[in-house]
Design brief:
With 283 residues, the protein is of the alpha+beta class. It has helices spanning 80-99, 110-130, 220-229, 233-239, 243-247, 251-270; strands spanning 3-12, 15-26, 33-42, 45-53, 57-61, 68-71, 142-146, 149-157, 163-172, 184-193, 198-201, 208-211. This is DUF7700 domain-containing protein.
């Protein structure tokens, strides 16, 4: 189910604008993504929907009905929030007609619409940055160095009772190891949990999450090891937003370290989930 936060409503005569932040999870929603949605309501029904996400940049006519969808062109349309607000301001009547709400067009108060859109624009931009779902995990209890990255392994228990082995892929992104301002950042996180196993691209950055299908991936740790062994880590780091780290990977050194990650990971899994909850560093 889509996670929604902080719906803001703006009345503008016979139409209402709603701005909300949404988090999508891969293998649950269409794809892993997050961002801001702008809805245009008429008589309590959603006539138009604008998706201003990291990846999904699109809009839909009557999303709860005929749901005719179009993509924004990321090359020429620019920022999706700015494009959406400008498009609503310039073409609201025509779009409502296409969506099947032509009866509302004659009663539009465009001065009220323009005033409300100023608040829609500012609120959407604040939500896009301020309500982003990110997470700061513990770095792990067992650290295995692999050149410019390191693996942090730990057994985790969530408050829900779920848990299992977590693998944190870490790197120093600022300063150097001899300076106090060195920033160790988690680039990827693999939560090989019992009930809801999943992994994160850029947990402190974009935090795009994908949940494994347990029917097809009964052994999440084995899946992770397969990706590491077959050279997929570089591409995953790039997708997470860290191309510089990916470019500096030492594939030979990485290959020599993976057996250690595998052996220690299996050993830790055999000990079971810890009795106490292991919270994230920042909630």
């Amino acid at each position: 189910m889509t996670t929604q936060t902080g719906r803001a409503r703006f009345e503008a005569g016979n139409v209402t604008f709603i701005v909300q932040h949404e988090l999508w999870d891969g293998n649950i929603q269409d794809h892993s993504d997050q961002g801001v949605v702008i809805l245009v309501e008429v008589g309590g029904e959603t006539a138009l929907r604008f998706n201003c996400f990291d990846i999904e940049k699109s809009y839909a006519y009557a999303p709860d009905g005929k749901n005719v969808q179009y993509r924004m062109d990321q090359t020429v349309d620019g920022n999706p929030i700015g494009w959406s607000v400008k498009t609503i301001k310039n073409s609201l009547g025509a779009m409502l007609t296409t969506a099947g709400y032509g009866d509302a067009v004659g009663a539009l108060d465009m001065s009220a619409v323009s005033a409300a859109l100023e608040d829609v624009d500012s609120t959407a931009r604040i939500k896009f940055a301020g309500e982003r779902n990110t997470v700061k995990h513990n770095r792990g209890t067992d650290i295995i160095e692999a050149g410019n990255i390191r693996f942090g392994l730990e057994m985790r228990r969530q408050a829900s009772g779920d848990g299992g082995l977590a693998i944190h892929v870490l790197s120093d992104l600022a300063g150097n190891t001899g300076r106090v301002f060195t920033e160790e950042t988690e680039l990827l996180a693999f939560d090989c949990f019992r009930d809801d196993p999943h992994y994160h691209y850029g947990p402190r950055n974009k935090n795009h999450r994908i949940f494994w299908d347990k029917t097809l991936v009964p052994d999440p740790l084995g899946w992770c090891l397969d990706q590491f062994k077959t050279g997929k880590l570089k591409a995953m780091l790039e997708r997470a937003g860290y191309p510089g780290v990916a470019a500096d990977l030492d594939e030979d050194l990485l290959s020599s370290v993976i057996p250690q990650v595998e052996a220690r990971g299996r050993e830790m899994e055999s000990g079971g989930i810890p009795p106490e909850v292991t919270p994230n560093l920042v909630r």
